[in-house]
Design a protein that fits this description.
The protein is an alpha/beta fold. The chain has 2 domains: about 240 residues, Peroxisomal Thiolase, Chain A, domain 1, CATH 3.40.47; about 150 residues, 3-Layer(aba) Sandwich (Peroxisomal Thiolase, Chain A, domain 1), CATH 3.40.47. It contains 13 helices and 14 strands. The strands form 3 sheets. It has a 10-stranded mixed β-sheet with strand order 5-4-6-7-1-8-14-13-9-10, with helices on both faces. Helix 1 crosses helix 13, helix 7 packs across helix 13 and helix 10 packs across helix 11.
Length: about 400
């Protein structure tokens, strides 16, 4: 079995359109949640989100390509370019056939779908652009990454709602660890700010009207976000041999299914995924320093996750630093695990714990150290990142300082 390391990391999200800006925002504890401006909110109850502001596709793509890419694909390509450039790998020199591209995406090209439904149903359009389906399909971001970089090995998208990216990273990790791939480009992407998508989320009555306050007693729900994060994984020995800079080591992955309720989270499934991840990583609970929590800001999720942390970590739970970076970049659904693992890795490298922003008051059901509001300067060596999804899909990734 290979030890698996991260040699490239790219981010395009609300707190920053590259990894350096993203890290700086987290360190400052700045929440990127604010008024939505990229769509009209006149007929919406939800007026806020964590949008990637001032994102001009023409800055990144040739004019004849922009029409082929949904916004979710654009984010993925920008993040992949940064990650692959940092890794120094060249997939067109023969490595591409031995490499994988595994991307998480929960809902795919929502902007493309919403716009075309509007044309069909509101305007009575008789025909649509011939590339409508290739543009909106959920696997489009992965396909365009392979085409742009010459990756001809296994490639596919994992869709498990809010656990999509963690599942994708977990599969990519397992492939590289087992020698099925010499390298993997993995992560997640999502863009959901459309009228129809937000209306659907409003119907669930889980959306906060003002901001996201994970684990706070007065939390009112989740806030959507958008963006992408991409990682390059490869065997540690290969990275050392070519003199690559190692950003972190992925050491474990755990996944479970609640098999109980389509929307309500379960303690058993969440705890089982964390326990499986620790077992896979050969970690004792007391060796974990930090948990990047799923922490959506809903009443049910935050209390359930806290109970699961107590169950898995026992007395050590009180000594854990636990934070939800969704309070700063929003809930990015299928991209959440990737953006949150990126947050964990940059924080580990720069020796700080990102805060849970917008926190106001403790909740008796949420009684751990949530690093409220202010970044904590602290070196840590081992962390896990949690993703728990609608449908009961749970996925947890463990990472260690390189």
């Amino acid at each position: 079995m290979n030890r698996v390391v991260v040699t490239g990391l790219g981010v395009c999200a609300a707190p920053g359109k590259n990894a350096a800006d993203f890290s700086a925002s987290l360190r400052a504890g700045r929440s990127a949640i604010g008024p939505l401006t990229i769509i009209s909110t006149d007929a919406l109850n939800t007026k806020i989100g964590a949008q990637v502001s001032d994102f001009d596709p023409a800055t990144y793509f040739a004019e004849n390509k922009i029409g082929l890419y949904d916004r979710s694909t654009q984010f993925a390509l920008v993040a992949a370019r940064e990650a692959i450039a940092q890794s120094g790998l060249q997939f067109r020199d023969g490595l591409g056939a031995k490499s994988a591209a595994i991307i998480g995406c929960g809902v795919g090209g929502q902007a493309t779908q919403d716009e075309n439904y509007r044309r069909l149903y509101a305007e009575g359009a008789k025909r649509l652009h011939p590339f409508t389906i290739p543009k909106l399909m959920v696997n489009a971001p992965c396909s365009h990454i392979t085409m742009e970089h010459g990756i001809t090995g296994p490639s596919f998208v994992v869709a498990s709602a809010c656990s999509s990216a963690n599942h994708a990273i977990g599969v990519a990790f397992q492939m590289v660890r087992a020698g099925m791939a010499e390298a993997a480009v993995t992560g997640g992407t999502e863009s959901v700010f459309t009228f129809g998508t937000i209306k659907g989320w409003e119907a669930l009555r889980v959306m906060a009207p003002d901001t996201c306050r994970p684990f706070s007693r007065d939390r009112k729900g989740m806030v959507l976000g958008e963006g992408a994060a991409i990682l390059v994984l490869e065997p540690r020995e290969r990275a050392l041999a070519r003199g690559a800079a190692i950003l972190a080591e992925i050491i474990g992955f755990g996944s479970t299914s609640d098999a109980a309720d389509i929307v309500l989270p379960g303690v058993d499934g969440a705890a089982g995924a964390m326990a499986a991840c620790l077992e896979d990583a050969r970690l004792a609970p007391g060796e974990v320093d930090y948990v990047n929590a799923h922490g959506t800001g809903t009443a049910a999720n935050d209390a359930t996750e806290t109970k699961a942390l107590h169950r898995v970590f026992g007395d050590h739970a009180k000594r854990l630093a636990v934070s939800s970076t969704k309070s700063m970049h929003g809930h990015t659904l299928g991209a959440a695990g990737a953006i949150e693992l990126a947050a964990t890795i940059v924080a580990m490298r720069e020796e700080f714990i990102p805060p849970t922003a917008n926190y106001t008051m403790p909740d008796p059901q949420c009684d751990l150290d949530y690093v409220p509001n202010e970044t904590r300067s602290k070196s840590f060596d081992v962390a896990i990142s949690n993703s728990f999804a609608f449908g009961g899909h749970n996925a947890v990734v463990a990472v260690r300082r390189a």
